[in-house]
Amino acid sequence: MCPKGDDPWTTEQNNRAIGLIVKSTNTSVPLDGFIGIKLYGSTSYIPLSSPSNTKCQESLQNSTQIGTVECNYTVISSFEHIIGIIFTSWPTYNLPDNNIFTNNGNPDITDFFCDISLINTIHANKHNSTLICHFYNIQTHNIKGK
Q1: 34-61: per-residue pLDDT in tens?
Q2: What share of the chain is helix, strand, coil (3-state, %, to 5)?
Q3: Secondary element (H or E) of residue 133
Q4: Of 5-19, 21-35, 84-98, 117-131, which has the strongest mean pLDDT?
């Protein structure tokens, strides 16, 4: 089956890639717990306390909305983490691919949301902690179809 919206004869196309910055403005309490990445109603939780590329990859690939990924997890400090995510495939039959939700292999950056409810930094110091969770585009052009 050919990917939807893709010409199978096209060569040298890119995989969709995004980045995520998770940062606490309170430097007295390090990041701990889990950051949730939500796409089309499905949330994957990545550990912040013992981060690794493998744990990130396994967490995201458990989602019904994501096929296979590569993660590049970088700990800048105990208060700032950067996660690079390359989507190498998408599920053939994912549920929200309908007249409302569709991505053809290139979901918009506004389709991704953070769930900070399981980050312990926020719970440890509610009064002096602000959490920054910011998605940004890495690769959006000449994307392989889904």
Answers
A1: 999 999 889 999 999 889 999 999 999 9
A2: 10, 40, 45
A3: strand 131-139
A4: 21-35
**DSSP class of 2:** P
CA dist 48 and 33 (Å) reads 6
| pTM to 2 decimal places | 0.84
Which residue type does 84 have? G
Give the Å distances, CA to CA, from 18 to 21, 71, 83, 88. 10, 10, 8, 12
What are the boundaries of each domain within the chain?
22-139
Instruction: Tell how far CA 91 is from the center of its chain.
Output: 15
Place of tokens 């902690």: 129
Encoded tokens for 57 = 């990859």
